Amino acid sequence: MSENVARRGFLVGGAVLLTAGCTSNEPAAAPSSSAPVPAPAASGNDEPGEKVTIGFSAPAADHGWIAAIAKNAEATAKQYSDVEFKPVEPTNDINQQISAVESLIAAKVNVLVILPNDGQQLNQVALQASEAGIPVVNLDRVFPDKLAYRTWVGGDNYGMGVAAGHYIGTQLKDKGVSKPVIVEIQGIATLPLTQDRSRGFADALKKYGFSVTAQQDAQFTVETGNEVATSLLQAHKKIDAMWNQDDDQGVGVLAAIKEAGRDEFIMVGGAGSLNAMKEIQSGSSVLKATVTYSPTMASSAIKLARLIAQGKGMSDLVEKQVPQSITLASETITKENVEQYLELGFES
Q: Which residue intervals make up region (Disordered) (predicted)?
């Protein structure tokens, strides 16, 4: 079964991801389903400048979070009259993505924004771009060679794990639970971002004297999330806490939990989808919190790419150049604060 079919089987309503600020500290308008990205705040950097072409490559948008990445990138590029946005066909095939990036290099775009399917495997083509004089803004999944990119922008994967671990640790300690059974459902286990999330989770749990009992990856898909959760529920007759690293695959995870009739544990999600937030808001779900990983990092990447291509720095910083690395913070959404996050979402 394809992921799209799986999503139709399990998902009620669209996924919603959170918004974040970009290169200015001016307040941003809340997005809606038709306009997910806030308009650029008024600043000298937002005034029309030298015309630049921004090449863009990302995986196929068959996942709610990835779909939001593509939408945010395109919408932000359209806000600037001095930007020509040149996306290539999104793909989950490594070789096809390499070929697509090579086509952008051959087209001599001014700057590239790349979210690689796998940073290790696309590292060489990013190096080719850099060596050709085309700066690369590396989005989310990082290239291992720093010479392959000019600037990296992404979420705090380690921080996601830390936030989830602290929430679970605090909840279990407050309940007086000792030697808890804690299960973790990862995304794609081979990706450094997944490994960082797991490491942060484990490190935070250590502060409470806890550790992960069982860990399994679910490939960021609804179908596999359902299969993995079913397997873990069958293997552990009693669970105290579960961390699911991705709210999109969490649709399948929650379906499995409901099918099994299990409610003895607390669950934390990851990313901040509307589906997850509504579960949290209901107060009747095992899902008690989710930790954010905002896809509006794509909006920031486009803004940064434009500035780099035009030889500008960020207006709120003293330095004259865009920083080499920008990490977004991960926030914890619970029933107590979910109301303020709901309006920041957009349908994917």
A: 27-54
Residue range 119-157, pLDDT digits in tens: 999 999 999 999 999 999 999 999 999 999 999 999 999
Q: Does the pLDDT of residue 249 top 60, yes or no?
A: yes
In this prediction, residue 61 has a pLDDT band, given cuts at 50, 70 and 90, of confident
Q: Please state the pTM of the whole predicted model.
A: 0.78
Both 173 and 224 in a single domain?
yes
How many Å apart are CA 316 and CA 82, to the nearest integer?
A: 21
User: For residue 294, what are the contacts with CB-CB under 8 A and spacing of at least 6?
Assistant: 17, 18, 19, 20, 155, 272, 328
Instruction: Kindly list the distances between the CA atom of residue 65 and the CA atoms of 97, 206, 229, 273, 311, in Å, as whole numbers in the listed order.
Output: 19, 30, 20, 8, 31
Distance CA 56, CA 68 (A): 14
pLDDT of residue 16: 33
Residue 264 lies in a domain: yes
Residue 201 CB contacts under 8 Å (≥ 6 apart), including other chains: 161, 162, 164, 165, 184, 212, 243
The SS3 call for residue 49 is coil
The CB density around residue 86, as the number of other CB atoms within 10 Å, is 17
56 and 146 part of one domain: yes
Q: Per the structure, how many domains does the chain have?
A: 2
In a domain, 199, yes or no: yes
pLDDT band at 345 (very low <50, low <70, confident <90, very high): low
Q: Which of the four pLDDT bands, split at 50, 70 and 90, describes residue 197?
A: very high
Q: Does a structural domain hold residue 9?
A: no
Which of 272, 292, 312 finishes a domain?
292
135 and 205, same domain (yes or no): no
What residues pair up with 136 in beta bridges, in sequence order?
112
What are phi and psi for residue 183, nearest 5 degrees?
-110, 150
244 and 144 belong to one structural domain: no
Q: Are residues 136 and 259 in the same domain?
A: no
The span from the CA of 148 to the CA of 131, in Å, is: 8
